[in-house]
Amino acid sequence: MSTTPSTATTDVVAREIAHEQAHVDRVYAELGRASERAGLVAQDGLARGRTDRTGDIRDEEITGLFERDALMFHAARRQASLDQQYEGLVFGRLDLVDLGTRRVDPVDELPDEWWLDPDREVRYIGRLGVRDEEYEPLVIDWRAPAASAFYQATPVQPQGVIRRRVLRSSGPTVVGVEDDLMAPAAPDDIVITGDGALMAALTRTRGSRMRDIVATIQRHQDEAIRAPGRGVTEITGGPGTGKTVVALHRAAYLLYSERRRYEGGGVLVVGPSSAYTAYIERVLPSLGEESVLLRSLGDVVDAITTGRLDRPEVAAVKGTLRVRELLKRAARGRVPDAPDTFRAFVGGQAITLAPNVLDGIRRKVLNGHARNAATAAARGMLAEAAWATHRTGERGDFMEAFEESMAVDDFMESWWPQVDPREVLLWLADTDLAYRHGRGVFNDGELAAFAESIRDAIELGSWSVADVALIDDLSARLGLVQEADAEDRGFYEIDELDGRLGAEVRALGGPVSAADTPAAYRGDTRDALLRGRIGQPDEYAHILVDEAQDLSPMQWRMVGRRAEYASWTIVGDAAQAAWSDAAEAGRARDDAFGTQPRRTFHLDTNYRNAREIFDYARDVILPLVPDADIPNAVRETGSHPREAVLSLDTLTDVTAEVDRLAEDVAGSIAVISPARYAARLAPLDGAHDNRVVVIDPMSTKGLEWDATVVVDPDAIVDEAPGGVRILYVALTRAAHRMTVLRPVR
Ligand SMILES: Nc1ncnc2c1ncn2[C@@H]1O[C@H](COP(=O)(O)OP(=O)(O)OP(=O)(O)O)[C@@H](O)[C@H]1O
């Protein structure tokens, strides 16, 4: 960042803005014309040369008019998808000297007074690439190599850049310019104006959604954004260092640089909560990218969506890899309510198989097969066992009779049904069964709490976030629920035609989609837990995990199952961790990455919090987590966090603080409160024209507001998994103002 003398008069600024407006108008006009023309080309069936690349193209790729028209057509389409409220299509300009072979860094090796070289170039940088009819670039896509100097140039390594200009726009209208001078002095014809774009961006009001930072990406952030897509890229840094926003720009960069691979293979972004995905969902579309899938951890497995959190001690049981032993035993165990003895007449003979024989068969079959794919194997082994007890007549005749027996059909249906992975978890609502399967793995207290949490799920009709990874594990163990043959479904299909898809089909393990489920079934909370079909996990070409320090080992396995061919971007800060066993999570994460090469980028400037706010948070975390990664907060406001007393009887101090902050700041305000006060504070939610949210500390991960009221910090430490680390998260969410309310205890 350079210093930017604000010397220009209002007239000069107005002239500069008018000059930039003229160029922006030309870009929009060109896009409009190109869109029409490319539309005609496509209609005429002449678009043979159409390319799937969008944005800027390299010179050697220009093969003819078709390609250019098609490119512009795509650009115009993308432009149409950029919402009006996104800031301008063209946001940057570089005035640079073409140093050619003389292009050397650092600055002291540059030619003397290089900035006076008359051989100059102007480059405009934007959200997408636009060329005129002569193929001359009017705007270069920010992700193209030719745009990289916009982010990489510094006064120490100017790369030939004299002036970097950020254009502030409202839709197609340029409303301001902010310049950074990269050369030691500006030539006479180059005006330097504004206070620098970064500070302008950091001081402005935060909305309820994250914005892109495409105009103000800093050099060290750009390096992480443009790192190669292959392998594992880890982005670390303390609170507010731009890890999330950088990772999202990286997703857009990867789509640009290898569109076929990443758009075709899919890019998945996994974040901690649905509040987080809602918060970031506008960033990629504002960069013209709509194809990235955003999922919260409760939303990774198809058919299940949840944000409900377990109590920390239960989440700990469900998150450790040790829980796999419990799941394995449950998945291999007897289906509750299944017959434990086989009794049937086969070929006129009464056959009985005792429970220990059935158990033996089950174990043997499951040694080599996933349960849901093993019906035929189980039936075959049952026949063998029946023959072994019988042994009269011809074996072949007996086997044939066994195969055709309806009594055996009936038995198989209840002894070896298709099992939905969610049903196995439901079995474990039975504390005795949980004790049996969890013996030696967890203690009785842990198992009782586990079983109770499943009963809670049944009562509430919703899974918890930690359950989702267990269901995914069970799904991999059991295999997909096989749909019954159409032939076998006969009369059920008539029911389906009646629109009564539900329990009847589920009896066969068939698909039930939420939309098709009749209201009568929706009322049943247990049914709600089983709604929808769990299919094969989707695979992705790139997976980006935010707040990676919070993933439990089981969640790493869940995400890893979708990553067999994927490269990764991982974003995190250990000091903000909610998951306590970092070593176990680290091993599970390493397993998910496999042997892929890794690279790490460390971000160390806090762009979110005013320095006074971050200092407060730092003083809380450092005594307890001395190795916390402490960034440098760059912005001072002179306004220190306010500490005040909270009266627990009325909680009116919270309302008073919210009112005060609403006067003080223009934007959003969060009341971050432990669960114990949530119901009493709920009326504040939506206050002051929807500027206020009431939110629990865990759900604030990854989010930010203009101002926050942090309620009862000691109670936050008591309640939250991760204790003081979650308080640290809560204390680093405010950009401009913060109040901390403490009860007198
Ligand atoms: N180069 C930049 N220009 C403008 N704003 C930036 C820049 N880098 C980061 N920011 C802003 O700083 C804030 C924090 O960024 P972000 O949420 O990505 O940080 P983080 O490291 O993920 O934080 P945390 O770990 O605390 O959740 C956001 O408002 C983001 O837009």
UniProtKB/TrEMBL annotation:
Pfam families: UvrD-helicase. Keywords: ATP-binding, Helicase, Hydrolase, Nucleotide-binding. GO terms for biological process: recombinational repair. It comes from the Bacteria. One of its GO terms (cellular component) is cytosol. The keyword ATP-binding applies. ATP binds at G237, G238, P239, G240, T241, G242, K243, T244. Residues 216-610 form the UvrD-like helicase ATP-binding domain. One of its GO terms (molecular function) is hydrolase activity. The keyword Nucleotide-binding applies. This is Putative helicase protein.
